[in-house]
Structure formats: structure tokens, C-alpha cells
Design brief:
49% strand, Substrate Binding Domain Of DNAk, Chain A, domain 1, Competence_nuclease_inhibitor, mainly beta, ComJ_sf, Competence protein, 155 residues, six-stranded mixed β-sheet, globular
Length: 155
């Protein structure tokens, strides 16, 4: 798989990425998570979306390096370890299982609008030492001094 795209529905202003078959895969959000644009814990990360609900296009791809298009509104990198079985991506209502090779990755999450459609891309870049960072923040984000890299499961 080099690239895979699908349409999905946004619910509760978030899109989640998690290990395939993970029990309680969705994360709770606190104010710091909202301000930084994501809620991360080992095996699961949820990213804030540009709007609270509606249709969107999601693309998942394997990449060699981090690259940003000029029309990107938001870009966030987080560490993510893929185990056997791959991953799932989607909303609290529906997810899509995707086969990604096992390994340690930096996942680049980007958000942009194309012809009034929200487009989100998850780029998996192999990395021995993945580090979380915000590459591009929009006006909705209010970045903390230190990114919060822990979250509780949603109840």
C-alpha cells in the first residue's frame, strides 16, 4: 500500500488513528489537548478536525520524508508504533482497517480544504526516534509550552 483514500463522516470534531482491534480506542480530551490539536496515548491518537461534523476525505500513505503542500492549514507530527494487524482510522461511528507494515513511525497529520471538502492526510514515515511536533498551526490552536503526550481512554 503506497496510498489509500476514503470518505468518512466527522463526529465530535475528531478523527482517530489507533492499533487495529484496540479495546477502548478513543481518547478523552482536556483543554490542553484541544489547544494543541490532538490527544495522544500509546496505540491511539485523535486529531481535532477543522469543523465539528460533516463529510471529509481521508488519505493514508507511506512516505519517505515529511513534506507539506503550500495549502495545508494544520500539520502535526506524532510518534506511532504499528503492531501486527495494522491500524484503524475514522470517527467514533465508523472506522476503516488499513494494513500498515509493523514499525515505528512519525505520523504526519495534515488538514486542508479542497473545493469546500475537508481533506485529512495521515503520512507514515519510518523513524527510529519519532518526536511529536506542530509544524503548522491555524487560528484554532493555542499551543502549550510543552505538548501533552498522555491521555485517558474515552468513557
Amino acid at each position: 500500500m503506497s496510498e489509500f483514500s476514503f470518505e468518512s463522516e466527522i463526529f465530535y470534531s475528531q478523527i482517530a488513528l489507533f492499533q487495529y482491534g484496540l479495546d477502548n480506542p478513543f481518547n478523552d480530551w482536556n483543554d490542553t489537548h484541544v489547544n494543541q490539536g490532538f490527544s495522544w496515548r500509546e496505540g491511539s491518537v485523535s486529531f481535532g478536525t477543522l469543523s465539528s461534523d460533516g463529510e471529509c476525505k481521508i488519505t493514508v500513505k507511506l512516505s519517505k520524508k515529511i513534506e507539506l503542500d503550500g495549502d495545508i492549514i494544520r500539520a502535526i507530527v506524532v510518534p506511532f508504533k504499528v503492531d501486527k494487524g495494522g491500524i484503524e482510522i475514522g470517527s467514533v461511528m465508523e472506522t476503516v482497517a488499513i494494513d500498515i507494515p509493523e514499525g515505528n513511525y512519525e505520523v504526519l497529520f495534515t488538514a486542508k480544504n479542497v473545493n469546500s471538502t475537508e481533506c485529512y492526510t495521515f503520512s507514515f514515515i519510518e523513524s527510529e526516534n519519532p518526536v511529536a511536533k506542530i509544524l503548522k498551526a491555524d487560528e484554532e490552536l493555542n499551543l502549550p509550552d510543552n505538548l501533552l503526550m498522555e491521555a485517558n481512554t474515552a468513557t
